[in-house]
Design brief:
The chain is built from 2 helices and 11 strands. With 180 residues, it is mainly β. The protein has one domain: Immunoglobulin-like (Sandwich), CATH 2.60.40. The two termini are 31 Å apart. The N terminus is likely disordered.
């Protein structure tokens, strides 16, 4: 019984997020999960339509803010190249994300980590380039991968957000994620 209830809850979350974040869904109920004022929480997987390439499962599995981000990112490459110093009035955000290629229109889906961005006080932050095996690229149907993203945003915002652009050619096609 618990497994069925859990599966039902996951299905509702997936359909809700697919509908709210720019995907298509058969559900006619309006849902706001994945919108800027109701971001997807850390650890929650959502199914999204990604450009015209297909459908992905996307989850921010870990999020680090401030000093935690600086400390964690330094462990991500074997050569010690990911060194970030504190910046006055700013804070770093480091996320670890997981992607599953669900249904694809072609042979592979090309996920571009540059379509992830961080926002604080309604201002887009700066994307930081990371060294080492931390970014994702092509995924075949049924395949999965993960990656890291690092951002620098205004420190005065207690609730910075991560934005995933689902199609840069269509206004409003994005999904918002919380980092706290």
């Amino acid at each position: 019984m618990k497994k069925r209830l859990f599966a039902l809850v996951l299905a509702v979350i997936s359909v809700s997020a697919l509908s709210a974040c720019g995907g298509s869904s058969d559900s006619s109920a309006e849902n706001t999960m994945g919108k800027k004022d109701s971001p997807v929480p850390v650890g929650t997987s959502v199914e999204l339509s990604y450009f015209d390439e297909g459908t992905i499962g996307f989850k921010i599995s870990e999020a680090y803010v401030g000093e935690e981000a600086i400390t964690k990112v330094s462990t991500l490459d074997e050569h010690g190249l990911n060194k970030f110093d504190p910046v006055d009035g700013k804070q770093y955000i480091l996320i670890h994300y997981d992607i599953v290629a669900k249904e694809l229109k072609g042979d592979t889906l090309n996920f571009n980590y540059l379509y992830l961005s961080a926002w604080a006080n309604n201002v887009r932050g700066e994307t930081q380039l990371l060294y080492g095996d931390v970014n994702t690229s092509a995924i075949m149907a049924g395949g999965s991968t993960s990656g890291w993203g690092m951002f620098l945003v205004d420190a005065s915002d207690d609730n910075p957000l991560i934005e995933l652009q689902l199609d840069i050619y269509k206004d409003g096609e994005r999904c918002w994620f919380s980092v706290k």
